[in-house]
Amino acid sequence: MGVIDTEGKKYLSDNEIFADAFNYLVYGGKQVIKAGELREIDTTELSVPYS
Question: What is the pLDDT of residues 12-34, one digit of tens each?
Answer without folding.
Answer: 889 999 999 999 999 999 999 99
